[in-house]
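Need residues for this backbone.
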């Protein structure tokens, strides 16, 4: 048998059989993958995008979801994880890269060691993390993302934005500075003269301050647990994060390494995210109300001084001379705290922090906050509205 006859024999008999076997194997592989639960979990990706698209078209649905679904679900899980004395979110984030590495090693080892059904193993190795990602994305949408389309605080209060005169702006700044100075006189200090805090005492005070808002503003739910201190708080400072709401565990996580008066304000801010107020200016404003309405001088000081920091720059831009008249109302103790804050954050002026700020800005703009990171500062307008129209 010559070479041409062998070639014809292969083309006529051997190759078609190999092709048929390959097709049957591919069909079985695809059929088995499709029948697996991992494949069905992929549906969470389009479902999450669909829910987001619906509330973008009908924002009133977001308010309905927030009131009748999100609030009871979030408070249930927030209470459940609140019993843990540590941040579950932090533990999960620390374990995530380890689990991913172990999964990758396991998949590669299985593919190399077992030659049979290798294609099916490769497909499933890719399918599983993508499917889990769909579930994670869907939970983000339901536990956080939809709330970005709810009514803002100004609408709930029925306020129109007020454009204050220079005199009115000066009056408000003096009000904030005088109250901050009076509260600061009663607080303990470190050896360097800056504010001293005890997180164990502060955490329940933050919880009570946030829950007490429900008595005055019924749209603010009560039942919050204490916020969680993050063990790696210093690491959060490197990316300039003072706190974070983790929607998969419904925990308010706080950077407790930051300067004194920022800690209670940030803690209240993150608990407001747990309550469903995702707009940064709204969370800031409700944190301000919780702080100044508290019986704790520490929280009251944090509320007044944080508001003053947002508003004094507006006064300076409006009238530098009136700003100079404000300075005597700011006590020396407050100046020490402000100086300590400035020195603390200077050490974290790095490219890493700049990148983190850009990521946060893009995230906020993607989630219905067109101002991006500037949203935090818009709380100044809400404080103005509250002082002149809401009192």
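Answer:
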């Amino acid at each position: 048998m010559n070479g041409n006859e062998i070639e014809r024999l292969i083309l006529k008999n051997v190759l078609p059989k190999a092709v048929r076997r390959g097709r049957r194997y591919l069909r079985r592989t695809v059929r088995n993958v499709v029948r697996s639960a991992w494949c069905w979990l992929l549906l969470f990706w389009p479902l999450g995008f669909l829910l987001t698209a619906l509330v973008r078209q009908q924002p009133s649905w977001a308010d309905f979801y927030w009131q009748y679904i999100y609030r009871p679900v979030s408070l249930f899980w927030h209470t459940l994880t609140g019993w843990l004395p540590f941040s579950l979110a932090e533990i999960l984030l620390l374990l995530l890269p380890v689990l991913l590495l172990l999964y990758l090693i396991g998949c590669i080892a299985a593919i190399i060691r077992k030659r049979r059904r290798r294609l099916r193993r490769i497909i499933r190795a890719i399918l599983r993390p993508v499917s889990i990602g769909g579930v994670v994305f869907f939970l983000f949408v339901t536990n956080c993302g939809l709330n970005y389309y709810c009514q803002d605080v100004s609408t709930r209060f029925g306020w129109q934005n007020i454009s204050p005169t220079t005199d009115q702006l000066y009056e408000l700044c003096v009000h904030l500075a005088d109250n901050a100075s009076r509260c600061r006189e009663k607080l303990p200090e470190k050896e360097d003269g800056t504010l001293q805090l005890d997180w164990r005492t502060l955490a329940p005070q933050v919880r009570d301050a946030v829950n007490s808002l429900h008595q005055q503003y019924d749209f603010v739910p009560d039942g919050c647990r204490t916020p969680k201190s993050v063990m790696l708080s210093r690491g959060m400072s490197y990316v300039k994060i003072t706190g974070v709401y983790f929607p998969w565990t419904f925990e308010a996580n706080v950077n407790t390494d930051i300067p004194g008066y920022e800690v209670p304000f940030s803690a209240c801010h993150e608990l407001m995210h747990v309550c469903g107020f995702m707009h940064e200016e709204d969370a800031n404003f409700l944190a301000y109300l919780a702080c100044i309405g508290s019986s704790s001088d520490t929280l009251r000081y944090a509320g007044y001084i944080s508001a003053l920091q947002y508003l004094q720059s507006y006064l300076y831009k409006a009238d530098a001379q009136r700003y100079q008249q404000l300075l005597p109302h700011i006590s020396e103790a407050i100046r020490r705290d402000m100086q300590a804050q400035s020195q603390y954050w200077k050490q974290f002026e790095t490219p890493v922090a700049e990148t983190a700020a850009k990521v946060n800005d893009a995230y906020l703009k993607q989630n219905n906050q067109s101002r991006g990171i500037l949203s935090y500062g818009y709380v100044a307008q809400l404080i103005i509205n509250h002082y002149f129209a809401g009192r």
